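Input.
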Amino acid sequence: MTDHPPVERTAAARRRWGACLGLALAVLAPGAARAAGPVLVRAPWFRYLLASIPAGGYLTLENTGAAPAVLTGAESPACGTLMLHRSETAGGTDRMVGVKQITIPGHGQFRFAPGGYHLMCMQPKMHPGQAVPVTLRFADGSRLTVRFAVRGANGAPAPGGTMPSGMGPSGMGPSGMGPSGTGPGGTGPKMRM
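Output.
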């Protein structure tokens, strides 16, 4: 007669094996099943001008964790391409420069604002009053998808437009926006990304 182990021991062995497998997966793929963790997004919005002109994306990232969080990119079906950028002035000339990553310090914030860091949306497929999805990608492999309100040239919310789900007034809206001078020959406003 064959000696079979008791059922309790077999069930315990399966639980141990399952726990080991779960631990191995967690160690081998640390960012695969996690959300962006302690990063919160405040007041996300795009400034839309025309379909032939890039739209600028603005938001504040808040890291509620102790370790730095590193933003490495973004994507959206509302943009042909979406890149991390910053505006700078050198020798009296404004230009935009691509940025590879942004570090949000532990228990700190990073603000994307007109005239500074922003998301550059090439070939925008959006209109004021809409809310469009944007997925933020982090160095640990996590992703965070949020809805950005689409505003017009002046940065004001569209009449009758809706705020993205879960976003309310935060005091971080369109402060500091608007003309930063005039265009060539003083012919009109020049908007900064």
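The radius of gyration is 23 Å.
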